[in-house]
Write a structure and sequence with these properties.
alpha/beta, 7-stranded parallel beta sheet, 8 helices
């Protein structure tokens, strides 16, 4: 199974974010789940990839050429695919994924999450999509999503398709990647 993880190119201000990336990475390796991610060696992306690799797992990075030229590509991953654009990166990661999870991050993480949720709503992907709500990071976003339902811009079933957990193992279980 391949899990596409969207997460920050920075580590954030709380140690819990880095700890969660490390924990889910090691759990993925332990369970034989291959990481598909944006190919970076920095921030939570780098922490996550390093944790999977340290646990003996497989990592597929997908990175646009312009970021590779800025030397932020992780050269130690199992497989590193260099693509022409951010759009190609998202499409390729989606093609490789059996499920999607977002960890804390910034604009890029939000963009990737919003796009995959849109694709799921439109039926372009059917894979599970989840949030690892570390330190309740996503609570304001979840409140905004509920407001979208309340104000008629999003239907409740689409919001209910988003799997939200604060614990790594439980999220991977709900995504159908590991058994209880």
């Amino acid at each position: 199974m391949n899990l596409c993880v969207f997460c920050g190119s920075r580590k954030g201000t709380r140690p819990e974010f880095e700890q969660a990336a490390n924990k889910i990475g090691r759990l993925m390796a332990e369970c034989g789940i291959t990481l598909v991610y944006g190919g970076g060696n920095i921030g939570l992306m780098g922490v996550l990839a390093d944790a999977v690799l340290a646990g003996g797992g497989q990592v597929i990075g997908v990175i646009p050429d312009f970021l590779m030229q800025r030397e932020v590509g992780h050269r130690g991953v199992t497989q590193l695919e260099i693509v022409g654009s951010m759009h190609e990166r998202k499409r390729r990661m989606a093609d490789l994924a059996d499920a999607f999870v977002a960890l804390p991050g910034g604009w890029g993480t939000l963009d990737e999450l919003a796009e995959i949720l849109t694709w799921k709503q439109l039926g372009l992907v059917s894979a599970p999509v989840g949030l690892l709500n570390t330190n309740l990071f996503f609570n304001p976003l979840l409140a905004q999503m509920q407001d979208m339902v309340t104000h008629g811009f999003l239907d409740q079933p689409s919001l209910q398709n988003l799997l939200v957990e604060t614990e790594e193992r439980k999220l991977l279980e709900r995504c159908g990647l590991i058994r209880v």
